[in-house]
Design a protein that fits this description.
18 helices; Serine Threonine Protein Phosphatase 5, Tetratricopeptide repeat; about 0% strand; about 300 residues; mainly alpha
Length: about 300
Amino acid sequence: MDLPDGARNTALVYASESGHAGCVELLLEAGANKELHGQQGSTALMAAAESGHLAIVQLLLAEDANIDSQDSFASTPLICAAEEGQVQIVRLMLEAKAEKDLQNFMGHTALMRAAYNGHADVVQLLLESLADKDLQARHGNTALLFSARDDHVEVARLLLEAAADMERRGDRGNTALITAAEGDFFQLTELLLAAGANKNAQNEARNTALICAADRGHVEVARLLLEARADKDLQNQYGSTALIFAAHGGHQEIAQMLVAAGADKLLKDNFGHDALVYASASNDLAIVEMLEEMAPGSAAI
């Protein structure tokens, strides 16, 4: 009964994954081992939780299956259910006192996986159960940073309402606001600014949200940041400003907005070049003319 197949899965794991509640009940009555790990280390409870088979999860928990068992990646049944957005199963496991903040090998918790995949209802449940909203995975990512990566605005809103730390830093030292600006996520940027995110935070390369928006040509996000009075003249590790990036990239509307907002047109990067030099090198005549009109003393190539 407990003999595994070539993939190391037992009959109980297969029945649990496939949603065959009757078979699961028979196997449990016959004494099948609930804790044997199958392919990738999944137990019957993990397989049922991930696949969304509530009745089978209830059967296994009633038989005292290990609610916090971990697979080959150290993921738990709660992490598996949260990642797949299995709301009822997550609720059941929380009621059964599953450990909310266990982390897998990547440092991910159930809350992080739900946030990453945009499962707002699961995130709400976990927050109500006081899951740690500011735990950091590898590279420093939090649930809020994971929600920002894929523009999950409602998830981010829930986390902010729960007072998640907006200034934690993840990949490349990015904050949630820098991540939103890089992705051209207007609503998320607006939400973070309204919540008081540091608009002048700099990542490992000393890029700000405004620099990232200017570099990528994200006009409306750049406008939001300027309206929020983001510092127009901060320089990154190479001395580049938002205006230099806009000029170099040919982003005319952003360059115009920056100049109109009073950005310093004469600031030079570490190579001694200002915005006009880069606009000239790119042969962007519209930006060249604008910068020459407003900065007649600046030198071009």
